[in-house]
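ESCALATION

Customer reports they have been waiting on this structure for their group meeting. Please prioritize. Original submission:
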Amino acid sequence: MKGLNQNIWELKGRLAHRQKRRAQTTALHLDLKPNDIVLDLGCAGGYVTRFLARASFIVGIDISIDSLLTAKRRVKKANTDFIRADVTRLPLKEASFNKACVLEVLEHLPFRLWLLLNDLLGKFRKGYWILVKYEKR
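Update from on-call: job pushed to the front of the queue and completed.
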């Protein structure tokens, strides 16, 4: 597929439109409220994170330094922070978030998936929402 390895911020035409709709749909399904604290796990370059700005605070986590540098450069919002971390060892307090999106991350962790889920679920308050997108390879 053309553009597959291209920086999402640089996409044009149909590919750009598809990514924008994916980010808008993610924000819509999370039903964001002004008091929400959202975790964007595997945030990459912060493209989807930008669409979560209605929340009170957003934390984007990714393992890639290059992706996080792009995210920090592209998403300049006071209510957003980006952290470099392994998703199976999250450096976050328990019950810190009430919503999260985990888009196209799980397929990269087939053997560590249960570590991620076990750690992740402890980071949420009661009544949380987690939106997960898994792409079968």
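Sent to customer with the following note: The chain has one domain: 32-133.
Escalation resolved.
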